[in-house]
Amino acid sequence: MKIPGLVDLQVNGYRGVDFSGTDLTQEDFIGACRQVLQAGTTAFLPTLITSPDEVYERNLPVIAGVLDREEFRGRLPGIHLEGPFISPQQGARGAHPAKWIRKPDADYLKQLLDRADNKVKLITIAADLDGAEYLARCAADRGIAISLGHHLADEADLRRLLRAGATALTHLGNGVPAVLPRHNNPIWAGLAADELSAMIITDGHHLPASLLKTIIRTKGPKRCIVVSDASPPAGLEPGTYETQAGRVILEQSGRLYNPATGYLAGSSATMLQCMNHLASLGFVDTGALVDMGFYNPLKLIGLSPADIVQDQIIEFDEKKRLFYTLKGSKYP
Predict the structure, then answer these.
(1) How crowded is the C-beta side of 250, counted as CA atoms within 13 Å?
(2) pLDDT per position as a tens digit, 204-215
(3) What is the Cα–Cα distance from 154 to 132, expressed in whole angstroms?
(4) CA separation (Å) from 1 to 277, 316, 322?
(5) What is the largest CA-CA distance in the chain?
């Protein structure tokens, strides 16, 4: 059966191009975007992780300018800022460099949004930081979807941010320390927050099948969103690479991690690969897969299918439980 497409809300880079890199050029960014689309993603949000101010000052206008090009309208609907307003704690910050993390600062947020020509559609912030509520309200007033993550938030923190306008959780189950209190921790709190949709990385490395099943059964498919969290080494051969987040190792299996901390450093998978891994597990039906990979991400950032160019032919083989692309579009 033909499906309408796949929408990815978290792409940090691709084939060696780092969207948070100090040397990002318009030409490199355009090339990486074309390759992401060619790999089976219908539309996506270029994502910047926590970065120094000079990167935001330089890269946000570069990215925003490309979003205005006719070629990418309906394919790059906006930008995701994953940070810099996240927890500085080891584990909670994930692969984000601690030295560039900032406390919630509404004035600085406005600077970032202005540099991005108001094209930010999604922002990830930590719910447990002082000032997070006010920051969330400022973002919501600008029409930006607010997701909570890279934090050590408890249920009370999430309730406060819900009232401030938060609607989602960034890669639930990840961006937390490897060892947590068994009951009072951000994963359980996130699962229990019925109003918050859960973004999940289904690359086969970030979350075991049992936890994926638990999240989807608890939240329901209508409140789950598949993301790739693709990092700059995605699409490259196994090896050691230098990224804005530091030195990382890409294994033959596809696992991508920081050898200094042992934590994962984003994903090496595309949206198509993530959807295929989830489909292969067999506990999500076709309709739910399409919701999680297309309709739900659009809804989170306030868009409809009509806002996305759907000229890419993507089909799902229900017998093989496999998504694949067909030639016949600009990005086959």
Answers:
(1) 21
(2) 999 999 999 999
(3) 14
(4) 18, 5, 11
(5) 53
Q: Which residues contact 56 (CB under 8 A, 6 or more apart)?
A: 48, 111, 112, 115
End-to-end CA distance of the chain: 17
Structure tokens at 198: 């859960």
The whole domain housing 179 covers 2-326
Strands 145-148 and 168-169 come out as parallel
pLDDT computed for residue 329 by the predictor: 63
Q: Which residues contact 324 (CB under 8 A, 6 or more apart)?
A: 40, 272, 314, 315, 317
Indicate whether 331 belongs to any domain.
no
Tell me the residue type at 262. Answer: G
**DSSP annotation string for 217-284:** HHH-GGGEEEE--B-TTTTSPSEEEEETTEEEEE-TTS-EE-TTT--B-SBS--HHHHHHHHHHHS-S
Q: pLDDT per residue over 36-90, tens digit each?
A: 999 999 999 999 999 999 999 999 999 999 999 999 999 999 999 999 999 999 9
Q: What domain count does the chain have?
A: 1
Give me the active site residues, please.
229
- 147 belongs to a structural domain: yes
> Any alpha helices (H) in the chain, and if so which ranges?
26-38, 53-67, 106-115, 132-141, 155-163, 186-192, 209-219, 271-281, 286-290, 296-300
Tokens of 238: 């196994």
CATH number of the domain enclosing 38 = 3.20.20.140
CA-CA distance, 280 to 289, in Å (whole number)?
A: 11
pTM over 0.90: yes
Nearest residue to 40 via CA among 4, 5, 67: 5
